[in-house]
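Trying the structure run again after the queue cleared.
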Amino acid sequence: MATHKYVYFFSAKNAEGDASKKQLLGGKGANLAEMAKIGVPVPAGFTISTEVCSYYYDNNNEYPKSLQDEINKNLEILEQETGKKFGDSQKPLLVSVRSGAAVSMPGMMDTVLNLGLNDVTIKGIIEQSGNERFAYDSYRRFIQMFGNVVLGMKHESFEHELETLKEEVKVKLDTDLDTNNLKELVKRYKSKVKNIVGVDFPQDPQEQLQKAIDAVFSSWMNPRANTYRRLNSISDKIGTAVNVQSMVFGNMGETSGTGVAFTRNPANGEKAFYGEFLMNAQGEDVVAGIRTPLSIEKLNDIMPHVYKELLSIAQKLENHYTDMQDLEFTIENKKLYLLQTRSGKRTGFASIRIAMEMYDEKLIDEKTAIMRIDPNALPSLLANIFDPAEKKIATKENKIIAHGLAAGPGAASGKIVFTTEKAVELAAKGEKVILLTSETSPEDISGMNSSQGILTTRGGMTSHAAVVARGMNKPCIVGCTAMEIDLSKGKVRFVKSDTEFVILSEFDEISIDGFTGEIINKDLKTIDSEIEQVFVTEEIALKDSTIAQHYDKLMAWANKYKKLMVRANADTGPDAKIARKHGAMGIGLCRTEHMFFEEERIMTMRRMILAVNDKERQMAIDELLPYQKDDFIEIFREMNGLPVTIRLLDPPLHEFLPHDEELIADMAFELNKSEVRIKNKIEDLKEFNPMLGHRGCRLAISFPEIPKMQVRAIMEAACELQKEGIEVFPEIMVPLVGHYKELEIQKDLIREVAELVMREKGITVKYSLGTMIEVPRAALTADKIAKHAEFFSFGTNDLTQLGAGFSRDDAGSFLPKYEELGIYDSNPFQVLDRDGIGELIKIAIDKGHQTNPNIKLGVCGEHGGDPQSVEFCHKIGLSYVSCSPYRIPVAILAAAQAAIREG
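Done. Tokens:
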């Protein structure tokens, strides 16, 4: 009976795998086999498959019974191919043991080089190479790497011995150590192992190999690998392979070397060979910073024939894989070997340029170009960044004083302010400010709008601050628990450690990086996005910007292939204008409450809330009507001919009232009301859980005059624009419906007001009426609700809160641990929870279709701008997704990729 195959050999003579087997052999193993097959010089070896990794973790760190026999068999084949023998004293075979997952995870897992060296085999290495110094240099490297990776010793333990010895013999570089120095270093390293680990350094090559394989498989679950997978949405289940490969040596003197190179520039995408190398070195030396590497072009001066061969192989590999390649190579006595090729990591700018230019070069087609670009890279092309030179200096000067969650794109600098009022006041004087606060609420909208960026101590990635900031394309950092604000003293303290902190005052300069979550105690210069200057401000013509031309072509292709429509969450005319420029096909969420927070309107809103009778309340509402109408006219005009979904008033009334004593006093004076009466009203409106309180359709049922005013404003605006010849398609959305009767009551009210306005104006407006599905009960009874709705818009932010039982403002304190433990693969407020909230959505879709087969379906939560969530929306057949104006390109590209992937 044949046993399951776990080990696959690769060499120029016999390659058992190829590039199509990445899930089985990992990226490194599959590409080594592929390179061997197409004639690229690759040191022979074998790959232990990812299936072994899965088995290892599923069976309490045990291996399949047949694995050791397979390893021994492949080791024998490797010995035959190389003419060397593992553990032999005459012609010893040395190997490297490297990790290699199906998805590239650079530097996250462990590697051991020069394995097989011991006090006996080193004599054979000296005899074979004729280079005693090289042999002991390799031995000291092996002990250090094995001690660190396998035996768990700290890297610094060995570095201390190395630096001490260099001081004793008065040399600066490792390469200045002579043979006797290296012999002494090996002796000291062995002694260090004995002292720390309590055992002698292992001399049996078979034991060394088994322990190294164990270490590489164990490194799949090390903290940095887990963190990298979590940040990059890589599943723990795919596992790593282990590659055992015959060693080639770059540290055999000045005829040998090692390096890394890219077939194109990974920073800017330029079609130019790019990389670094060192002579007389092994791989880790290039990235460790011990010696300054040389630019790859200088290899042409040192070894022109090797450089020419490397260029030829690089071009061959790029043409073969039709993608920019990241190469690792070693030169052993003037002979070139490739140790790895993989698709190279690149910046957002580079990814677009490379994809577009490879299309022009006929290496790839449109669909492949679209699939090559990470949608999440696009915001970095649209937002300001810090001047790289200034950021580098600030980092060196230790000016980074705290970190939080990077919740809004871009970089910003300005004076610290602690209140919305101060932000508005200083911004009006032309000052740049950063708003620091414990958390934000809808009341802070004007302050947020006036600020360059927002920094909060509380909240997660979908807190109010994060959601609004992303909609404004403003840098935002939330959940900065190291920040302590003392409003009474006008001070803020950033705790760096138990003994170190930084205290700043209001109006001090500060910078925040919305890409990294860093808070910087310095005023840094920012650079505008070139694409933004072309498509939004139009300060640069399209013909004058190469990156903008590439971006324009990419988005045109994406729009051609996508099936989902992409709309914007926009509350103002300027937001709507930006949304159109970024490609929005309508507005999927217009939050009317944001319109009430402007300075000239908020007092009228407060007068309505504080009204003592219906007449007084109606007078205030009548004052609000023209404001609402003007806003809708501006939005409809910008969206000429495209649908606009308008959510009727959603938040509870207490959010429109101040809570600060000084602000209450100011309001009492302006409204000519008693402070005591105002405080009593605020107390009356206070709720233990506002999310579940008197808001949305509940508020509209209690105060029908509010939705009546809003519907009249919508319809009057629509009628007036249609008279001008501008097409308008309002979609009136009732929020927070949980019971069909709530919607039924609001539907009757909306229809009555809409018909009345159209009769008054003599105009017929094609409008629709629907609801936001954000309450689990609404999803479960969607068949009843659909009888009264022409569309459902899934408010996935609140549906996640209510469905999962998490507060999006408070869950940031524990959700990272949930992700770390694998309870959730990703933060459910960032990436839609398909198994839970996704099922609620599917239930609502199925039930809604039972009653109303033609019901329109969309998503308007933050998930509408997340690529994974967009793909889910495509799969379940939604009509559109809606997101912030600056996430529209992300959603468009993600929708195109979902359609291509499905096809």
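The two ends are 40 Å apart (CA to CA). Worth checking whether this holds up in the mutant runs.
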